[in-house]
Amino acid sequence: MDKQTVTIYDVAREADVSMATVSRVVNGNPNVKPATRKKVLDVIERLDYRPNAVARGLASKKTTTVGVIIPDVTNIYFSALARGIDDIAMMYKYNIILTNSDENGRKEVQVLNTLMAKQVDGIVFMGNDISDEVRKEFERTKTPIVLAGCVDDQDQMPSVNIDYTAAVEEATKNLIDHGNERVAFVSGSLDYPINRDYRLKGYKQALKKAGLRYDDKLVFETDYSYKAGQLLQPALQSVNATAAVIGDDELAAGVMNGVTDAGLSVPDDFEIITSNDTKLTEMVRPKMSSITQPLYDIGAVAMRLLTKLMNNEPVENKTVLLPYGLMKRASTH
Amino acid sequence: MDKQTVTIYDVAREADVSMATVSRVVNGNPNVKPATRKKVLDVIERLDYRPNAVARGLASKKTTTVGVIIPDVTNIYFSALARGIDDIAMMYKYNIILTNSDENGRKEVQVLNTLMAKQVDGIVFMGNDISDEVRKEFERTKTPIVLAGCVDDQDQMPSVNIDYTAAVEEATKNLIDHGNERVAFVSGSLDYPINRDYRLKGYKQALKKAGLRYDDKLVFETDYSYKAGQLLQPALQSVNATAAVIGDDELAAGVMNGVTDAGLSVPDDFEIITSNDTKLTEMVRPKMSSITQPLYDIGAVAMRLLTKLMNNEPVENKTVLLPYGLMKRASTH
DNA sequence: TATCAAGCTGAAAACGTTTTCAATTTGATT
DNA sequence: AATCAAATTGAAAACGTTTTCAGCTTGATA
């Protein structure tokens, strides 16, 4: 019944001051005489008063809550970002409303609307793609939004990423340098700009610089699942691929186990470089070489950027690229 | 500036009805003449009115938001539960405020207070342990709380789990039946009732029924990390263990790789059964045999239970045990 | 036609804060 | 003692809904 028994009004009455003064004390406003402050604090303690954040949100138009849209928490890549986001959010006294989108445009739009209705102060969006409907919603609102690990090919939204093109180019080059002339490119849907316009581009650049011909038979478009990777082995073999750059760690683990289970040796018969450097890379055998990304930091920096936007602080550049690297492990020579 | 331009008042004015009527239309209250409803709906459409959930929350004392406390989203076991929670929450029109606790009692208490301040309608709590301070907070509030994958040794809180004792007993028995006389028990901290009072108990029961002596040298208490598992190999060897029941999949993967990297064969020299049946079990080589738990369902059922509690619906039994199983894979004979 | 219940509707009071603005108090300065 | 600025305080109006309760319409029934 009476969940919220004691209100600011009760405190004011008991302390014999106005609500305004109680509010000041609660919010640390310095314009309160120390004696008054103590008096109020004592009553607050005695009555066990807890400010109602909903009322506060209504009055102040700030909820100290931000929305986070994530394709799937269960995905180890995104959950690492989410952890970075939450830690920084907490540091700045925000809470996170987390929702899984399954990269489904309709769901994303619906979630965005719910978040706006709940008056979140800002939003962090993760995903492989920004559909047109979603972009429309983005443009429609004044609530600050930043993308984490999600490129905006139209370069309008604030975002934090790594340079996927350069990273994939470097990875591909590495494989080529090991003598592989037929390097496969395995990624999620090429409908996603991040794959088509960034990663694939890096792959092509590496080929070109090495003087190798681009062969679209070596490009495999699939979903990001372990299973999908596992089933890819026959196809890879049929096009005589001897190495692969792969866009997702679970997918890569699938490919690797598929290859291994088929009796081939990684890296002797087939080399693999994956993309996200999640802890999975260390758990499989052989350990997987990977492009390294500061996953946690991508989330953390995105959230930090969002706090600036929410406070109308000036922001130097809206799209930040974090450094990547290449970690050699046992799946490559 | 004017984030929320159009209010229910604007709609009422334009449609020439009262706010009460608009509210009724928005909330699907049937006591509105169809003609009126249409008129209002048209204005809503025209003005692009979106109800403010914060104001709604204040007036109705319902936020359609529930708090979720999770040790670490990055942990594949908990994130699976979280996914189940979120899906069901969404199905029932709730949103999730997700916060990482790191199993830190102080942080948990603080988060609970924030959640209460934000007037969440309910809370799902995950963790290995309920500290005294946390329990005190639980008792202090009238907000419904349910535990997911988290036992309450005092059996006061609603919760959903599997029968850990029986599951571990069965797993241990399985190993014993394969001829292992020295089966190690590897888990997280034995300060946690779930390990000390449930899992370890099952382990002991299995030994007893098999006529084997309990040797506490075979009990390994560690943290739940991959790394910790990997470093355990020498210790396991020094006590002549030939098999292990392990309380967490990442930990188990660590142990297995530690053993394998030391030149031993799993399962020929060392058998392993792990506990959570996350997808990790299928990704490592050899694949790990595991106690199976319906991870997603634990979360889903917990959230479903919470919705009932929030609606004051009668609940048959407050602590639900979901079925477990034993999945044989390649890490056991 | 009078009557009554059921169906609709609106006025206004919550909900629990923050914030504005004016009033009061204080203390230093002349 | 008079004056003034600065410090402290309170009254009351937001904030945008829901909800209660009474009143008004209807249409059917006697």
UniProtKB/TrEMBL annotation, chains A, B:
<feature type="domain" description="HTH lacI-type">
    <location>
        <begin position="6"/>
        <end position="60"/>
    </location>
</feature>
<dbReference type="InterPro" id="IPR006377">
    <property type="entry name" value="CcpA"/>
</dbReference>
<dbReference type="Pfam" id="PF00532">
    <property type="entry name" value="Peripla_BP_1"/>
</dbReference>
<dbReference type="InterPro" id="IPR028082">
    <property type="entry name" value="Peripla_BP_I"/>
</dbReference>
<keyword id="KW-0010">Activator</keyword>
<dbReference type="GO" id="GO:0000976">
    <property type="term" value="F:transcription cis-regulatory region binding"/>
</dbReference>
<dbReference type="Pfam" id="PF00356">
    <property type="entry name" value="LacI"/>
</dbReference>
<keyword id="KW-0238">DNA-binding</keyword>
<protein>
    <recommendedName>
        <fullName>Catabolite control protein A</fullName>
    </recommendedName>
</protein>
<dbReference type="InterPro" id="IPR010982">
    <property type="entry name" value="Lambda_DNA-bd_dom_sf"/>
</dbReference>
<dbReference type="InterPro" id="IPR000843">
    <property type="entry name" value="HTH_LacI"/>
</dbReference>
<comment type="function">
    <text>Global transcriptional regulator of carbon catabolite repression (CCR) and carbon catabolite activation (CCA), which ensures optimal energy usage under diverse conditions.</text>
</comment>
<dbReference type="InterPro" id="IPR001761">
    <property type="entry name" value="Peripla_BP/Lac1_sug-bd_dom"/>
</dbReference>
<dbReference type="GO" id="GO:0003700">
    <property type="term" value="F:DNA-binding transcription factor activity"/>
</dbReference>
<keyword id="KW-0805">Transcription regulation</keyword>
<keyword id="KW-0678">Repressor</keyword>
<keyword id="KW-0804">Transcription</keyword>
